[in-house]
Amino acid sequence: MSQMEMLHSRNFLLDPRSLIVLLLITCSHMGFAQSRTSAKDSLNLVVKELRQRLVVADSTGSAALGAELRVSLSREVKPVEAIKLLQQAADTIHQIGPRNSEIAVRSELAEALRKAGKATQAYSELLQVRSLIEAREQEFGERARMDSVTAVARSMALNDSLSNAMVLADAEQEASNSASKEKLRNWQWATLGIALLWLVSMAFLLYRTGSVQRRSNKAIEELQEKVRALEQRPVNILRVPKEESLPLPVVKEIPSAEKGEVEQIDPMILGMFRKQAPERLETLRTAREKGDMDKVIRVVHSLKPQLVAIDAERYAPLCAAITSVEARVDQATFDRMLDEFQVQVERTLRELKD
Asked: pLDDT for 22-57, tens place per residue?
């Protein structure tokens, strides 16, 4: 291989087609540099032109031209897209060569990755560049004497880049470890707080449950005492000899009230009695049939104020006898008093109706 061919292979990106593309870019920038808006429009036009050329190159199978256009386009677009384009160009040149072009593209890719903050990937690309350089130097060892100084300088620069990349990678790893430790500490404190909150909640729940249980036990004990007292009361009552029975209250036959006497009674009491007495008598009969003596006493109590107001001499002793504690000792006497009560109430209703 001649010296001119060597120079051509080492300056792959400087062939006529690349110069045309770069000339177009330069002309576009020079022609529209009057204002920021014009420059941006010019850049958009250049990018659009490069994209169209790239599509044509890919469709015609021109891999080398496609790689050149991707490198040129990467210098005009955003870092994320630029990295993607450089990676595609590097992969294409790796397949078709030459190695010098791949070294140049991958070096530019490593620099773009470093600027984007991706130190680990930049370090990986630099390692690959170093491998390519070593392979190239091995293939062209006999010609290394011509450019030994440049090779040494490049190697030192590469070592510096590797060292910087390693430092950045170590710093990134250290920052990641610190963040992980901080997250772990936060989770530990959060878990401890939740555990303490759970313990406090359980203690409060147990305290409330104990208080409720104690109140329930006290209420049950009070109810048991009342039940025992009620159970003992009939025993005391039954101590009265069975032969002794309460005399039936004497109800005097009092003539029907004169019209003037009836008019002296409060009309509201008379109205309430006329309205409620039939219903209460029916309730009294039903309660007696069912044997519900407590309800019987309640009915008598409810009618007593009205009956006493209408005829105290007739109903006061009868109601007092029925509602007394001793009245239910002798069931037969109690039933006779209730019969008399019903008869007298029905009689009063008839008198007031007449």
From this structure: 566 665 555 544 556 766 777 788 888 888 898 898
Range of the domain at 280: 259-353
Q: If residue 77 lies in a helix (H) or strand (E), which one and from where to where?
A: none
**Residues 81-121: tens digit of each pLDDT:** 889 889 888 899 988 878 888 899 899 989 989 988 988 99
Interatomic CA distance for residues 86 and 72, integer angstroms = 9
Give the span between the Cα atoms of 87 and 91, in whole angstroms: 6
Task: Evaluate whether residue 179 is within a structural domain.
Answer: no
Full-model pTM? 0.32
The per-residue pLDDT for range 62-73, each reduced to its tens digit, is 888 888 889 998
Predicted confidence (pLDDT) at residue 151 exceeds the cutoff of 90: no
Give the residue ranges of DSSP H helices in the chain: 3-10, 16-31, 36-60, 63-74, 79-96, 99-115, 119-139, 148-237, 259-264, 267-290, 293-310, 312-323, 331-353
Say if CB 336 and CB 246 are below 8 A apart.
no
Torsions phi, psi of 14, nearest 5? Answer: -110, 25
Q: Answer yes or no: are the C-beta atoms of 344 and 304 closer than 8 Å.
A: no
In this structure, are residues 105 and 85 in contact, taking their beta carbons and an 8 Å threshold? no
Q: Which CATH number does the domain housing residue 322 bear?
A: 1.20.120
CA 216 to chain centre: 36
Looking up residue 41, the CATH number of its domain turns out to be 1.25.40.10
Transcribe 314-326 into DSSP letters. Answer: HHHHHHHHHHSGG
Q: Omega before 98 cis (within 30°)?
A: yes
By three-state DSSP, how is residue 164 classified? helix
Answer whether 109's CB lies under 8 Å from 90's CB.
yes
